[in-house]
């Protein structure tokens, strides 16, 4: 059973009523394309319903932090270190 | 509400003038200039990065002796210090139908024929390496036709490289020091003069897959690309002046950007024999012409 709502603000509330601005602020959505996680409850569902035209909602099982969401978008580095310089040189020993 | 139409702040970026650098040497010329106020206003546009003395431009020959510093036996399949991370894509290695153009062996100048090899949807080294039928017929030709080029991706950005190239990355790569050997393992295209190997499309698209916008990568077990870290390059010191209109206070921010320089030591496209005998490949799957699969277990 899904535990959280994953709410993303897709459309701005510029030009809309102050109530709508208030709902978005209560959800924690200050900017477009920000994503926020809230536990599933009738209160949150009601808030989402109030701004349903501006927002994209999914039901997910776990909530992610900002860093975790950024990690999902991070591409592969594309390289790894195979050998470090000076690996063969041992400190203090003179190679004959 | 203040209007945003007119931007009241300006910021100009300039190159540092030679006389601005801190120097305790007082020459007669500088005394004369300061006395007569001959120095011009610092509003020159910032030029591109200079050619620094050791960054010579004539080193793009693939067959120089200097490009191979250490003997070939150092470049066998070594265990990675930091093994590459595995992707979580659910699709198996793609079974791809061969493209329409196949290089005809009769003519000398064959059109570039596309080899659609196994896609890299199973990035982990334990997944099976599937070689499609077209790949089995054309890979020997690609392997034999040196020199090779590779389009490898570092943080998703593509770089077209061939042996002996000097690659100046547009950023400072941390955690590496000059002399280290790096292994590039994400590539989208491997090619030679007449043949190109690229990854085929994935079988399934997962909604939950990592959405990084990365291109289709070739399976990393098909090639070896080694780079040596040459060092760091730095741009000249730049001054950015931040100032608002009708306000005498200004702020100067200095920046001196650094860039890591690498050199391509080796680009190796593995042949089918190499893939069969190499350890660490895992399961090798050879497809027949109708799509049937013959599996070969490796160690």
Automatic annotation (TrEMBL), chain A:
Alphabetical UniProt keywords: Ribonucleoprotein, Ribosomal protein
Official protein name in the record: 39S ribosomal protein L33, mitochondrial
Organism: Vermiconidia calcicola
Source organism phylogeny: Eukaryota, Fungi, Dikarya, Ascomycota, Pezizomycotina
Gene field: MRPL33_1
UniProtKB/TrEMBL annotation, chain B:
Species per Swiss-Prot/TrEMBL record: Vermiconidia calcicola
Name of this protein: Aconitate hydratase
Biased composition (Low complexity): 1-13, 97-113
Chain positions covered by the region annotation Disordered: 1-123
Superkingdom, natural source: Eukaryota
Composition skew (Polar residues), residue ranges: 28-42, 114-123
Lineage, broadest ranks: Eukaryota, Fungi, Dikarya, Ascomycota, Pezizomycotina
